[in-house]
Amino acid sequence: MIRLDAVTKRYPGQDAPAVDGLTLSVREGEIVVLLGPSGCGKTTTLRLINRLIEPTEGRIFLDGEDVTRVNPDELRRRIGYVIQQVGLFPHMTIAGNIGLIPRTLGWDKKRVGARVDELLDLVGLDPGTFRGRYPKELSGGQQQRVGVARALAADPPAMLMDEPFGAIDPITRERLQDAFLELQARIGKTIVLVTHDLTEALKLGDRIAMLGERARLVQYDTPAAILAEPADEFVASFVGAGAAMRRLRLVEVGSIELVPVEAVGAVSTSVRADQSLYEALDAMLRAGDEGAVVLDEDGRPAGAVSWSAIVRETPHAGGAPSAGPPLTRAPNGESGRR
Ligand SMILES: Nc1ncnc2c1ncn2[C@@H]1O[C@H](COP(=O)(O)OP(=O)(O)OP(=O)(O)O)[C@@H](O)[C@H]1O
């Protein structure tokens, strides 16, 4: 869907390129997170995709089409763009802000109005309450939702998001991230999102592109794989000491080999098969149990999970687990919540 082919960006007057020969493919409908230290070229990479910045070398494709040959205004209508500062026009109402692109596309008033209401609904803001307000009359989190609604106005197939939840307090941020994942489950856009927050990357990314200096692609993999098998010391140090604990949040209880209920003795703890190992462990610790009964969709015991089984499933100094079913990513929202 989006493909960068040996893309280089040299800013005028800079010795080293900000992006040096980056090749990266993003599949249709997936969220790819660009993650890396400050100054490694994440924002530059993102802006190259919608041509807010022109590449020095290389090519970028959207749906197989070379974007460097497309009129930039037309291109930006096909790619929604969400930034941290939201960038709403202060003198325009919320409806005015969201309807901006549809109006420039020449939609009639009625169609714009209907689209604005539909989008406000979609991002969880009551149209009657918010349509006529001005940006300064909204909280930071509400403005953020309007920013997303505006980016989606012309129903673009792709969306670029630059630290979209960066300037928001941690609790609101988590709520917005959950709402964003629920929204994405419905709209299935192709999304490239920039963050330097590992927790956010692990939660939101279908895949994470770990970037080093000059946007060198160090590792490109699922969150679980990045935690379990960091490609090198740089990734390992970025992922940090909590990798094994973080990974517990990404593995569903039902994806590991369960033991018979009798094997865990008399325990009072039960968890659903679609909860994460992290949640299972948390429940076990709170109850002082060494195991938990695992319930299937109908609430019937499907087996049990034990403390030792969780330890076996977690990569450790003795090596990653070799047997057992592949890692399953816990569904976002519910059990993937951080
Ligand atoms: N307009 C510019 N002119 C010259 N150099 C620039 C310009 N914009 C960015 N740079 C440089 O390019 C490099 C990459 O910057 P970029 O903003 O893409 O990094 P980033 O990974 O998004 O950083 P952060 O996480 O701190 O936002 C940096 O060294 C930066 O100083």
Shape label: globular
CATH class of the largest domain: Alpha Beta
Q: Estimate the helix proportion, in percent.
A: 25-40%
Mean pLDDT: 86
Q: Order of strands in the sheet with the most strands?
A: 6-7-8-3-9-10
* CATH topology description of the largest domain: Rossmann fold
CATH superfamily label of the largest domain: P-loop containing nucleotide triphosphate hydrolases
Provide an overview of this structure.
This protein is an alpha/beta fold and 338 residues long. It has 2 domains: 2-246, P-loop containing nucleotide triphosphate hydrolases (Rossmann fold, 3-Layer(aba) Sandwich); 250-338, CBS-domain (Roll). Helices cover 34% and strands 20% of the residues. It has 14 helices and 13 strands. The chain has helices at 42-49, 72-77, 94-98, 100-104, 109-122, 127-130, 140-151, 170-187, 198-204, 223-228, 233-239, 243-248, 277-287, 307-313; strands spanning 2-9, 19-26, 31-35, 57-62, 65-66, 79-83, 158-162, 190-195, 207-211, 217-221, 270-272, 291-295, 301-306. The strands form 3 sheets. A 6-stranded mixed β-sheet has the order 6-7-8-3-9-10, sandwiched between helices. A hairpin with a 2-residue loop joins strand 4 and strand 5 (65-66). The longest helix is centred in the middle third of the chain and has 18 residues, at 170-187. The protein is globular, with a radius of gyration of 22 Å. The structure holds adenosine-5'-triphosphate. Residues 264-322 form the CBS domain. InterPro entries: AAA+_ATPase, ABC_transporter-like_ATP-bd, ABC_transporter-like_CS, CBS_dom, CBS_dom_sf, P-loop_NTPase.
